[in-house]
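Ticket opened by: R.M.
Priority: normal
Category: complex prediction / small molecule

The reporter submitted a protein together with zinc ion and asked that the result be attached to this ticket for the collaborator who will pick it up next week. Submitted input follows.
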Amino acid sequence: MLILGLESSCDETAAALVTGDRRVLAHRLLGQEAAHAPFGGVVPEIAARAHVEALEPLVRAALDESGVTLAQVDAIAATAGPGLIGGVMVGLVTGKALAHAAGKPLIAVNHLEGHALSPRLSDPDLTFPYLLLLVSGGHCQLLLVEGVGRYRRLATTIDDAAGEAFDKTAKLLGLGFPGGPAVERAAAAGNAGAVPLPRPLKGSAEPHFSFAGLKAAVARVAGQHPPEDIAASFQQAVVDCLVDRTAQALTRAGEVTALVVAGGVAANRAVRTAIEALAAAHGLRCVAPPLWLCTDNAAMIAWAGAERFAAGLTDPLDMAARARWPLDPAAEAVRGAGVKA
Ligand code: KG4
Ligand code: ZN
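Result attached by the on-call engineer:
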């Protein structure tokens, strides 16, 4: 089985070819950091235009690199949401056009499902069910992954996502964009015990995450301590919250085969190390995809497509792009959800 995957939901344009037996034949990615850096964040209109320009050449390059033609591909998987709607539409329409032209099935992939199944691309031994900490720029959730298309959300953020907190902290400290890696670099030179910062919802009986109060606290102390100390203290506060909330979810998750961390923030060394320690303390295997598979990419979309295709799941060509698309539609809305702090 050979799947072409397309990703364009935020600020990375990507195309990849992945086989059903987990071989990544090609993965091409073009980031847009330089285009958005002057604005200190992703500008949706700039992103959509950049996806239009980048996607087709990336598809061509991925096909050339793997030495296959569109006719040899079994299906085309494209991110259909959630994300910045202009970019999602570019990728989905491109996927539909390629599927129609080549007479191949379309698989409309939920970007979060891409992250959720990505650890099964890098780890052939990872079986369902597993507890997933999904930490990215737009999301912070704990999901019980029971099977392909079967996700139970155990927790989500009531305000900001963890990656968003990293990005805002970087901005407040003048560390530049994108923020996560910049904060991690600064933190390496700082003292994590130097600046007292809150751990929102740590120890709370309610299941969710919250990062808005931490961000506000960083805003109050910015300029009063060396940025490295604030970065290190902030990173430690995020890690403490992630570990506490994940430990709490483990008490409700039932039997799981592994503790898994994925999404852009899973590229953070301190986060990975802390989740590994938590898994070990619970006698669980820890799985974290390689860094390139944690941040947005098309290999995870192609892989989710492969898993869905194997399960007989394809989508009609009139499938609509979706800005919002929960993985677990049955999960209750949380207080503050959708209200940006
Ligand atoms: O999964 P992703 O690439 O895109 C979304 O779907 O959101 O995640 C991007 C997020 C950004 O907020 C970025 O700052 C964060 O992941 N990130 C990191 C690191 N690398 C990326 N956060 C902390 N440490 C990192 N090394
Ligand atoms: Zn993502």
